[in-house]
Write a structure and sequence with these properties.
- The chain has helices at 4-15, 20-29, 34-43, 99-106, 128-134, 150-160, 165-178, 194-205, 224-239, 251-257, 275-279, 297-304, 329-341, 356-364, and strands at residues 59-70, 73-84, 88-92, 114-119, 122-123, 135-138, 212-216, 243-248, 260-265, 268-273, 285-291, 313-315, 320-325, 346-352.
- With 373 residues, it is of the alpha/beta class.
- It has a 6-stranded mixed sheet with strand order 6-7-8-3-9-10, sandwiched between helices. A 4-stranded antiparallel sheet has the order 2-1-4-5, with helices on one face.
- The chain is globular, with a radius of gyration of 25 Å.
- The relative contact order is 0.11.
Amino acid sequence: MNHPEIVRYIEKAQQAQMTEGEIRDALFRAGWVPGDIIEAFQSVKGSFASDLPAPRHNTMISAYGVKKYFGDVKALEGIDLEVPMGSVLALLGPNGAGKTTLVKIMTTLLSPTEGSVHIGGYDVAREGSKVREIIGLAGQHAAIDEYLTGRENLQLIGRLCHLEEDRVKRKSEELLQRFDLLDAADRSAKTYSGGMRKRLDLAASLMSNPQVVFLDEPTTGLDPRSRNELWSIVKELVATGVTILLTTQYLEEADHLADQIAVIDHGRLIAKGTSRELKSMIGGEILDFHVTRHEMIHRAGEAIGNLGTEKPRIDEASGHVTLPVKQGSQALIEAVRRLDMAHVPLEDIILRRPTLDEVFLKLTGHPAENEHA
């Protein structure tokens, strides 16, 4: 334990019959980070958290053995996750995989059937009110009142968070400017575009200066420009130390924003790592080419079939062939030679690294949904 002074404080506070929440509150106000506080609790005999696995330093979100059952439906079957402070974790998975269920548990909207979740050191099951004080949530659908103006929406959220009136006004103006909504601040929200509604919803989630923000498919249905604007906002938040948990079906989004990516399918965590680590699961590189005459695509597949680590994937409609290979440039040279001998004309041929889409396909057995929506 690197901070024995925290341990001494906890021991004295427990003797004074302070609750775990009161102790953590005092330590947070004193400037100690969540990872150190949790570790200190675990080192104290009789700690409330003594049955939890040791978290990594500065862990802001932790989930251990989380299960959620709805009758006979097993929505989650034992999820383990840790998210360091000031980082982005992207949750990938098809519809029905369990992503939104996990977010609802982490944001105190659902209780887990089994397991434990801590946000900023607080137990979501026992200290839900404390968790809600330090988190923000922006869901798939913008949770704004269409009949209020943008400014009124933010001020309403500020009052619901029990912020002082001066702070509500000051914070509202700050967020309207930050999210490029000042010009529309006094217009009814029902006149806003989809991208503006999403920005207003995210701004509302930041009214209380949360330490952790949950974004549940925040860019679904947005045009590329609006999506890029939200990406920039997420990067700005992380730069200030905010921790982000992002659920998405856009693999480009996860590749662009996430420090770590977790893939969930059928309620189970099937892979976790950086984008580079997940891509390395496919191994080697990808041989990628288009044939000029689509009717010759199967001849092309036969010509290079035994060059790769698996069978080539063939798209007859586009004349596109992809093949995972390990030999790199040697495989490329041999493929060109074989295709030439088979008299298969090519539009193009390249050797590239795998994409997250290919990782997703390998892990789940089907491509990501709405990838280009």
